[in-house]
Amino acid sequence: xxxxxxxxxxxxxxxxxxxxxxxxxxxxxxxxxxxxxxxxxxxxxxxxxxxxxxxxxxxxxxxxxxxxxxxxxxxxxxxxxxxxxxxxxxxxxxxxxxxxxxxxxxxxxxxxxxxxxxxxxxxxxxxxxxxxxxxxxxxxxxxxxxxxxxxxxxxxxxxxxxxxxxxxxxxxxxxxxxxxxxxxxxxxxxxxxxxxxxxxxxxxxxxxxxxxxxxxxxxxxxxxxxxxxxxxxxxxxxxxxxxxxxxxxxxxxxxxxxxxxxxxxxxxxxxxxxxxxxxxxxxxxxxxxxxxxxxxxxxxxxxxxxxxxxxxxxxxxxxxxxxxxxxxxxxxxxxxxxxxxxxxxxxxxxxxxxxxxxxxxxxxxxxxxxxxxxxxxxxxxxxxxxxxxxxxxxxxxxxxxxxxxxxxxxxxxxx
Amino acid sequence: xxxxxxxxxxxxxxxxxxxxxxxxxxxxxxxxxxxxxxxxxxxxxxxxxxxxxxxxxxxxxxxxxxxxxxxxxxxxxxxxxxxxxxxxxxxxxxxxxxxxxxxxxxxxxxxxxxxxxxxxxxxxxxxxxxxxxxxxxxxxxxxxxxxxxxxxxxxxxxxxxxxxxxxxxxxxxxxxxxxxxxxxxxxxxxxxxxxxxxxxxxxxxxxxxxxxxxxxxxxxxxxxxxxxxxxxxxxxxxxxxxxxxxxxxxxxxxxxxxxxxxxxxxxxxxxxxxxxxxxxxxxxxxxxxxxxxxxxxxxxxxxxxxxxxxxxxxxxxxxxxxxxxxxxxxxxxxxxxxxxxxxxxxxxxxxxxxxxxxxxxxxxxxxxxxxxxxxxxxxxxxxxxxxxxxxxxxxxxxxxxxxxxxxxxxxxxxx
Lengths: 415, 415
Prior knowledge:
The structure is a homodimer. The first copy, chain A, has helices at residues 90-95, 104-110, 114-117, 135-149, 164-174, 197-210, 328-336, 358-365, 376-388; strands spanning 7-12, 16-21, 32-36, 42-46, 50-57, 77-82, 119-124, 154-158, 175-176, 180-184, 215-221, 229-233, 237-239, 248-250, 257-259, 265-267, 281-282, 290-294, 312-317, 340-345, 369-370. Chain A is an alpha/beta fold. In chain A, the strands form five sheets. Chain A has an eight-stranded mixed sheet with strand order 7-6-8-10-11-12-15-16, sandwiched between helices. A five-stranded antiparallel sheet of chain A has the order 4-3-2-1-5, with no helix packed on it. The model of chain A is unreliable at 63-67 and 91-96 (pLDDT under 50). The interface between A and B is large, with 88 and 87 residues.
């Protein structure tokens, strides 16, 4: 019987298709089979049309090996924690599926240069795509990071790219640390020739070992070549492109540093907390009843009723922080109920302001809190974290981890 | 008695405040007065603390003048329609309010150079800030534009900046035209020294008069200086900064042209419909039961129930178009009910794709339609327009007005 991962030849009424037999996605209709072509693309074929399927080569699951990791007492100690994502998707890519299953140990084996940079410890924390990660997983990652930081000089966390920005922000609030926590990922899986995985990994291990900052940063390609990675504060990072390796951008401030692989670390923006002594503390609770609401023309006021049992929402308003007048009553109802309502801008760049127009002053008078230059996604994570840990929501307008700044440099637009 | 617009001196327990007495925003608590300072900022003062208010200079409403507009038969004819927004906010700025009230006629008086570029006709269509504009107003603007195009060589529409992108997209679908319709606006009101109004206006009149394209375009500052404006397709434009004059950006393709004030028009990207002969047709109905939903970690599946009586929603998914697995049932319920569900990306740049990951294939299998490189806001307007005019929603994956392209040039990221 044909099994997922087998190389097959399928004969249909019209054609002959060679490729790898894949597991059928759960929600696809029953009478379809999926074949991954050598081009990397998958096609679905109606079972009705299939005349025969012949197994050319059976799939053999790769053996798990016990790896000896080289240790050098002169090098810093870095722990690499894997949580899933495209960077972890090799093994499943072989079977055609994409459920993340590739672990931190495998990275070390595939990228031996890493052991020139640091003494490495690897641990698989979970194997998930970020879009499915919940607050519970973020809490777990925070605990694992803190545990590793007891001994390591820095920690690298690998994950998927989709919700990386949210998770980086959430971890920034969870972790009071005196060492760097470097989050990295890949836009193309590690087994592809053009993968960005290795350069991101080696730059991240370099940053974890040698960067003179503490806190949570994201380390991803800074250009479309393998020349350097940008190190960006976890509270200021956003995925701005669906597929480019340099998709991750620092919004409203410059990246803190450029990391040249296992080489130089060039500080670009000195506004980061320095690496220091002291203990690590973790506050990793989250309130789940928070939401992010995008504003658009004639948005219906009734949509806001659904948030009546929420603890808080973040609006992505227009421009400096407008919403249509017709939804003022909906917002007022929420605020009267005790729901926190914060304002950010769907422009993403620069800050909201409640002073310029009378409409803005009216919205502020309803009790909406203007969140300055905080990213919508970061504001959501901060709100969930504040509420979850019993902190006062008035801290939404205080800078806790570099998420809010008085001044935005002019040359940071669309960099 | 003190009236809005009066220059006053307010004496409180603690200080002496000079400025302009403003109308109190409707929702502000009763016992506050608002004074606009000469710095341009407004302050609220508790009535309890006010010892005296003295009127220094009474506000006199500017007289409406009948203006003679110069005509030159050798010049093209351009109609300027004003709809409100910051570019129209001078008169109310004087009284301190910001309800748009300044009309197209006033632009011509304040910017006499405009008559060197074209024979101008001016008309005030409405006086609103864009965040309050509904589909009904968009329909009205479409009709007025079509009416003017019967005689004019091009039309300029001035409006606010906040929802300009949405309105430009909506008008693009409404109007089948063979002449250019140029939308412009200002980030700073026309009576400020640093206003971008005049340069945007003169560039827009130049484009309406002389640009060799047809259809709806946005003409706004292309840099932070008054050197040129970018002409951007109405379906590809987005406000990317809350305050900069060059906030409007062409997403996923280059602007079609650079407009050098009343001077040169330099075509940058030739992918536009050319100016031609033929009649103007307007299809200006919209379906109001459409929504835009932003995806974030652990978004609650129950939120989707609120869209059960909607005709369609556009998701702003993560990355290539993911959503958490936990909301698949909510989406499926909507689709089973006949609600159209389209997928765009919150990354904004590049396209969604349903083929790369099994999660994406599963979401597509639910019946979610992947909308390629269409902007979320444009997709929402297109959906509303298709449904409103009885057209098939399968057109969501056809390119109607340049909103969807097979190829994205590599050097268009963050330009």
